[in-house]
From TrEMBL:
<feature type="transmembrane region" description="Helical">
    <location>
        <begin position="104"/>
        <end position="123"/>
    </location>
</feature>
<keyword id="KW-0472">Membrane</keyword>
<feature type="transmembrane region" description="Helical">
    <location>
        <begin position="20"/>
        <end position="37"/>
    </location>
</feature>
<keyword id="KW-1133">Transmembrane helix</keyword>
<feature type="transmembrane region" description="Helical">
    <location>
        <begin position="49"/>
        <end position="70"/>
    </location>
</feature>
<feature type="transmembrane region" description="Helical">
    <location>
        <begin position="135"/>
        <end position="151"/>
    </location>
</feature>
<protein>
    <recommendedName>
        <fullName>Ceramidase</fullName>
    </recommendedName>
</protein>
<feature type="transmembrane region" description="Helical">
    <location>
        <begin position="158"/>
        <end position="176"/>
    </location>
</feature>
<feature type="transmembrane region" description="Helical">
    <location>
        <begin position="188"/>
        <end position="208"/>
    </location>
</feature>
<feature type="transmembrane region" description="Helical">
    <location>
        <begin position="76"/>
        <end position="97"/>
    </location>
</feature>
<keyword id="KW-0812">Transmembrane</keyword>
Amino acid sequence: MIDHYCERIDAGILAEPINAFTNISFLIAFFCLLPLSKARFQYLAAGERIILIALLGLLLAIGFGSTAFHTLANRWSLMADVIPITLFQLVFLGGYLRYVARVSLVFVAIALIGFLLAGAMLGRLSLGINGSESYLAPLLFITAMGIYHKVTAQNGSWMLLLTTGVFVCSLGFRTIDNAICSVWPIGTHFLWHLINGVVLFLCTRVFLMCAGEKDYSFEAKLA
């Protein structure tokens, strides 16, 4: 049994009902994105469509993988939880840089390698933040992207900075989970799930708003 959270006190598959159930946030994000995805799909190039489909598919995979981990709490379910999250980060970063920032494939490759190296190095730190060290690299990168997004006045210029703030909030709840077990036995990890559904929704929506050809009726709705 892998036990990282307040709510789990035994090896049973129903030991984390709240942590498991709140993964519904990722499914809600998926279904909320579907109408906009369908509306924008015709304006996307082939590569952009691949990125969008990957992001939507990974949203579902994150929801199901995290649910598996918070019910089974073993090594294979841990991988089912961690791998889709990592892939979503890489796909979004690569897709944003290539199709929103419009940088070269070489730059995209360098950025992805830098992201992985930063994650590996920061993840090895022992800062006493309940394993949240591995999420410091995504926080740094999305902050930098949010600043770029605002400075270059992209569609929804504030949205990635908002996403950064929301992610800081969710990371805070993940970090304090074990520290408050004695006063709040169910912990706060479930809030990490709920708020991260919003984070991934916003990331995907930013991509949809900015990638592809101009849809002037869509642009007018944003004005």
